[in-house]
Amino acid sequence: MYLREQKKLEERLRAVLRNLYQIEPENLVIEQPPEIKFGEYALPVAFELARKLRRAPRKIAEELVSALGSVEGFAGFEVAGAGYINARLDRGAAMQEIAASSELETSSEHLHSLVEHTSINPNKAAHVGHLRNAILGDTFVRLLRAAGQKVDVQNYIDNTGVQVADIVVGLMHLEGLSLSGVQALMARLSDAGERIDFYCWDLYARASQWYEADPSQKEARKKIRLDTLHAIEQGGNDAAQIGELISTAVLRRHLETMLRLDIEYDFLPRESEILRLHFWESAFEQLKAKGVLYFETDGKNKGCWVMKRGTGRTGNALRDEAVDDLEEPAASDGPDEDAKVIVRSNGTVTYVGKDIAYHLWKFGLLGRDFGYRRFFEYPDRECWISAESSEDDHPHFGEAQAIYNVIDSRQADPQANVIEALRGLGYSEQAAHYTHFSYEMVALTPRCALELGYEVSEEDQGRPYIEVSGRKGFGVKADDLIDKLIAATQQEVDERHPERDAGKREQIAKEIAVGALRYFMLKYTRNSVIAFDFKDALSFEGETGPYIQYAVVRTRSIFRKGETTPEQALADVAGVDAAPYLAGEDADSIWQLWLRAAKTSLLLEQCIATAEPAYLARHAFQLAQDFSNFYRRHHILTEGDPAKKKLLLATAAVAQRELIRSLSRLGISAPEVM
RNA sequence: GCGCCCGUAGCUCAGCUGGAUAGAGCGAUUGCCUCCGGAGCAAUAGGUCGGGAGUUCGAAUCUCUCCGGGCGCACCA
Questions:
Q1: A547 CA to B49 C1', in Å?
Q2: Which contiguous run of DSSP H or E holds residue A554?
């Protein structure tokens, strides 16, 4: 509603500007006034015109107001301050429209998008940082789907990299296990109900330390590491099989962990298939043919295939389509030492090279495809994994029009390299729809680190936060955090609802725990580092998920006691002349709620345009705040005036509708009771 | 050396394409359950928006510069 009226207002204003001044502004700013008493829209356009027309802004504003005349849906326009034009909606009519229109207003393109998120190395348990990644990614997927896009969700699995190699080294050289020994170990862990990813968490830290532990052995151990890595890449040996066993088991655990937060995937592309299906060879041909790569014959990169780096573009810009190719820097003499190595002098491909091939595949530009095999069952969908050959009835992924890579900000450079390569190949359309959905890391506060029993140096204690490290085994495991949250919510629920059966209480506790965790990860904007602390994460009061869920629970309670339904309440308000109840000081708390509810579509659009889910999280919270405020001031069920009572019930209904809608896009459920 | 991010209330953070008295949560102080669930509501205190300069009718927001903090700039993945 809000968005539609805004567009109507904008069109009308443009017509007026054309008629009056023959002006066609590129973008017309329409703001939301700071206070509700100023109306619903504010237009600072007169200030802009003042300069061009060399006249007082207030005069211009007055002229515009009289030219605007009356617009359907609007109660009127007025000049305020030094030259603002404030627009007021016809509250009664707007209310009716909001009550009646439950569908979504959306103007964004209906693209086929691909979102990659999670992508944890399958060699250890997921930690809080991975949770931020997965929650951001999953939420964004929900936003795109809400806007009508077809979205594939991918979780990239680096199952042949050094991190998996480190675990294999740990198993073979620290634990002295053979392939059968590893199989026995896995069976033992499974029987004991122990989480293999937790086992690997410790082993990975030990292995990482082992490399450095003995200076005299350092070189030899580094060689073991490298040999193991190569063996895994090669395949067809024990190391590779151990790597496959462990990484697959850990991957399964990651999927289980994420499923606890209602996070699902469609496809798990693995590096092993990128290698064995020769994705790189195809990419290499293209890159050479288009001159994106060239063979360096001199300097430090002699014997490598390299790519020149971008000219001033940042991988951080969401869509730098506006950046047209500037002229090439003058070809100076000698080798470009700053070029990015893609193929090493020994003929092997770097990570960026493989990533270029993978991203060509994502856009359907590679000319090769993965094989597909079933891997994991969700209640309502299947998750597929890459394979060298396909099962019957397999789906097909890739060929997306737009892609989003949820990857932390430290990888901005390699991401920019891939975009650069796409552009170099002439795929500028695809490059423009390539978004590095970047976010800052989750670190621990020194206090949190101490609580967990880690040693914290004097220097670190003085810092605002300490980076987690898988190599050191330093961090908060995702499952531990979820367990802790559930324990805390369980206790609350048990106290509040001792009469309910245990299964129901457990269900409610889980929903609240998930709500708390997801909201916690979403309320910070992407480029803010989260300094993690149990105190904040385990909070259920104030700006938290449970606060919002509680608002919904209250609305449910109203309809239960009032023996009606939200749908009925919304239907009943049709035809009621609510205007008298929507004006005046006391009515602002009612109108505020309707207005906010009308803005959900606007927020969705903003979130997608800026790739920032935090805005919707905030919106949901503000909606809950508006409702709590309204709830206190207006006693619905005892209202004596029948017309007003209908309005109040409808207000609760629309609040519930928009709260549930917003929460579901955040991946948070709204329990019946809590 | 080059690039990116951050610096706003005691703490943690919002502040959208420049706009009306700079907001929220937590913490502090103080009120509010004969009334739809207090995981709540209301009020008070608390800010040279890191410093400086510039652009502008107007700057927390844009530009430059300096200070402080973080992260990238491998023939590692």
A1: 29
A2: helix A545-561
CA of residue A433 to C1' of nucleotide B61, angstroms: 27
pLDDT score recorded for residue A24? 83
Query: Which nucleotides of chain B have an atom under 7 angstroms from any protein CB?
Result: 3-6, 12-21, 23-27, 35-42, 56-58, 69-77
Region A309-325: what's the mean pLDDT?
A: 42
Q: What is the pLDDT of residue A105?
A: 67
pTM of the model: 0.95
Numbers of helices and strands, H then E, in chain A: 26, 16
Q: Does the pLDDT value for residue A541 go beyond 50? A: yes
Nearest-nucleotide field for A626 (CA, C1'): B41
Query: End of a domain among A391, A417, A439?
Result: A439
Which amino acid, one-letter code, is at A5?
E
Long-range contacts of A58-62 (CB under 8 A, 24+ apart): A58/A82, A58/A83, A61/A85
Averaged pLDDT, A469-486: 94
> Does residue A120 share a domain with residue A84?
no
Residue pair A235/A243 in contact (Cβ under 8 Å)? The answer is no
CA–CA dist A232, A183 (Å, integer)? 17
- Whole-number Å distance between alpha carbons of A157 and A215: 33
CA of A461 to C1' of B43 (A): 38
From the Cβ of A344, is strand B under 7 Å away? yes
A553 Cβ within 7 A of any nucleic strand B atom:
yes
A371 CB neighbours strand B below 7 A = no
Q: What's the CA A141/C1' B1 distance, rounded, in angstroms?
A: 40
Q: Please choose, from the candidates A424, A429, A278, the residue with its C-alpha nearest in 3D space to the C-alpha of residue A339.
A: A424
Structural domain contains residue A536: yes
Closest amino acid to nucleotide B19 (CA–C1'): A44
Identify whether A173 is part of a domain: no
Picking from A243, A245, A235, the residue whose alpha carbon sits closest to that of residue A273 is A235
A98 pLDDT higher than 70:
yes
Range of the domain at A504: 479-665
A10 Cβ nearer than 7 Å to chain B strand: no
DSSP H helical segments within A307-390, as ranges?
351-362
- Residue A92: the pLDDT is 94
Indicate the pairing of strand A293-295 with strand A305-307.
Answer: antiparallel
